[in-house]
What does this fold into?
Amino acid sequence: MQVAVIGAGWAGLSAAVHACQAGHRVTVFEASHTPGGRARALDITLADGQTTTVDNGQHILIGAYSATLALMRSVGVDTDSALLRLPLVMQYPDGSGLRLPRWPAPLDALAGVLTAKGWGWGARLSMLKRSLRWQWQGFDCAPQASVHDLCRGLHPQVLQSLIEPLCVSALNTPMERASGQVFLRVLKDSLFGGNGASNLLLPRTDLGRVLPEAALAWLHNQGATVQLGRRVRNLQTTVTGWQVDGQPFDAVILATSAQNAASALMEYARTASNSIATDIQTWCRTSAALQYEAIATVYTQATGARLPQPMLALPSDGTHPAQFVFDRGQLGGPSGLWAFVVSAATGEREAMAQAVCVQVRAQLAPYLGDTPLQLLQTVVEKRATFACTPALQRPPEAIAPGLWACGDYVQGPYPATLEGAVRSGASVAAQLGR
It folds into this structure.
């Protein structure tokens, strides 16, 4: 089949690669000159005036991202070199929190809970009992239940130091509004998954080199056509398939954001036949109902400063907004380059950046010392993820005959993650021609 993939984010690249592997002839259209979508490379200026490449937002992967890791390997990425693999750690600057040993699952999780620093026995037993209950219930709950409902009665220490940061990092939604069902699926596949599933996989380089650049090179080698900087202007149906800007295709995969996909489809629906227009309008209504959460990444530099480990959790509140900090100097980047992540971010960019600088001096002063801290850049993705709320209706992959959508927002068991995006692309590619 002749297949058009519109969008070269992680979902679109996954769809294109899997479609090529299935023997289809693929053309990728990408409006930007940089592939990767919301997980792409970004150049920033350091304190000494030099330029380095980071990400438009700090991301991590976990060992349970089986589809993402398989895709990376299939396009020639050495995952051991590209990613630093560490046992799950959710520790704070004072050393408190959870740290799993390098043991087989589920013994690693059991040992991590029993030895969590700063937790009393009440907190440890509370987490163990609740974990057993979730396992006994098959990691399932009522669709309407929030993470807050799910964790009612848990020890406050567990809620504050483990559940809240896990929820906001995985679902990018505060636990009071986050889906309990999706959160349990994340726990099942990661913390209570197989050996290595809970491991943290920290990129040693910018995200562009982790997957998008390798995927584009692989597609070129397979004879696929990739057009960067090419915005699609017109989508039309024909007797035998579809046309993208007048070019004929048997199938079209929309791998753009939900908002962009819905905007393009509503424009097309005005001239489409009644049967197709109805399908498209139904899809667009579901897509338009999605709400979004922002993620901010604040980059700072204090040359020579070093954190005790590559990633730390941070106590977060209204005046200290960041939940995590990454020492990119320990991940192959410049010395003292730190990335602070503010999930479910609210407020103005400048105020948020200044609040993070205050947070650094309040919580990380022992590692900063007398080294001056310089604010480099603040990146805010206002529509970073959909709000992963209980009983959320997400748009399906199939839109109309021969027309598909893929992305981290379509129907699926996962929140808006790289793994969700990659799986969605693979799923659509597998359905082509059926």
About this structure: The chain has 15 helices and 21 strands.
